[in-house]
Amino acid sequence: MGGSLATMLRYLTAGESHGQAIVVVIEGLPAGLEITVEEIQAEMARRRLGYGRGPRQRFEVDELTLIGGVRHGRTLGSPLCIEIANTEWQRSDKWHQEMSPAPGATEQPLTKVRPGHADLAGMQKYGFTDARDVLERASARETAARVAAGAVAKKLLGHLGVEIFSHVIQMGPVRVSADLARPTPADLATIDASQVRCFDAATSDEMVAEVKATAKAGDSLGGIVEVLGYGVPVGLGSHVHWDRKLDALLAQAVMSIQAVKGVEIGDGFEVAGRRGSAAHDPIHYDAITERYRRGSALAGGTEGGISTGELLVVRAAMKPLATLNVPTLETVDTATKEAGVSFKERTDTTAVPAMGVVAETMVALVLAAEAQRKYGGDSVGEFVRNAEAADAALRS
């Protein structure tokens, strides 16, 4: 569920990777938000981008259906339900049998659990003897539902002038130079045109070469993405409770993405090695815009758990995928207790570019929830008026 239980905007996903469909229900959207299937599908298509993706991206088509909460292209204020049909399930007898909700059993249980995946821990927690009972839900296919929800959150935030996007800054050992300027929203088309969603063309070529070498070895590759939020208003989040802090909410949301093992706000890890005199953003007052401004983005757009109105910077580190095209990871067969190597499902060499789109989604959902908490409003019009009044009060 998105954010804490007190958050106005909430979402819940359901469904399994090779099941009939993935579904997301979003609660707390104001009435009057214009949204179409085509807008959501455009975001979903971005999730399939990136060199190093496996053949499943060619097989799957995100067939979206707005089940409820929308009439004539506008939200009604009631829960919004989006279904993403699994076209592969529809045409495959194998998955009809394997993922049938009817009573029965599989003829091919998966028992050679994969190190680094949820297989063994999930089997132990829930008492399963077949890893498929775990991996189908633990699969990153679930993020399709999150991206659908994030498309709606981005649309809502757009009414406040907020724009959120991501770019890949590291793929395996290849990293973008820290001296390069950060991209702006105008550069998103260039980023998405890159095979690895990297803004710097030279580094992008190096990343592609690294992915090719990794694929040839049958191995997998991790990396780091940076999510940027332009136009985030002052005052989202709060310093008063641990579960109201914006940076804490962002960290939890982004860390929840499959295979993400590290989250950083601003230059969090780098400034830890500096002295305080070089670790904080200087503040000055801009008389022309009547706003307080920071001279840098070391804090990543938050202070004390509250958004500052500056550029929001969130980084996510993704580990290499646990499923390898040439399985070599040592494991144990849970049925026989014999040593062996983990099983192989269809997999990607890397999913870092796609993970960036998912990370955008999680940031958007957190910001939309906190904006709803701060500004309220039963309709989009009321939501925007309240936000404009809050901004005017700051400038006065």
Architecture overview:
- The structure is a single chain.
- The protein has 396 residues and is an alpha+beta fold.
- The chain has one domain (10-395): Chorismate synthase, AroC fold (4-Layer Sandwich), CATH 3.60.150.
- 34% of the residues lie in helices and 20% in strands.
- The protein contains 13 helices and 17 strands.
- It has helices spanning 37-47, 56-59, 87-91, 93-98, 119-126, 132-138, 143-158, 188-193, 201-216, 246-255, 268-271, 352-375, 380-395, and strands at 10-14, 21-27, 62-68, 70-71, 74-75, 80-86, 163-171, 174-175, 223-230, 260-265, 283-286, 291-294, 302-303, 306-307, 312-318, 330-332, 339-341.
- It has a 5-stranded antiparallel β-sheet. It has a 4-stranded antiparallel β-sheet with strand order 1-2-6-3.
- A hairpin with a 2-residue loop joins strand 7 and strand 8.
- Helix 10 packs antiparallel against helix 12.
- It is globular and about 70 Å long.
Continuous helix count: 13
What structural class do helix, strand and pairing data support?
Answer: alpha+beta
One letter per element, helices H and strands E, the order comes to EEHHEEEEHHHHHEEHHEHEHEEEEEEEHH
Report the CATH C-level class: Alpha Beta
Concise summary:
This protein is an alpha+beta fold and 396 residues long. It has 13 helices and 17 strands. The protein has one domain: 4-Layer Sandwich (Chorismate synthase, AroC fold).
Structure characteristics:
Chorismate synthase, AroC fold, five-stranded antiparallel sheet, disordered N terminus, 396 residues, globular, alpha+beta
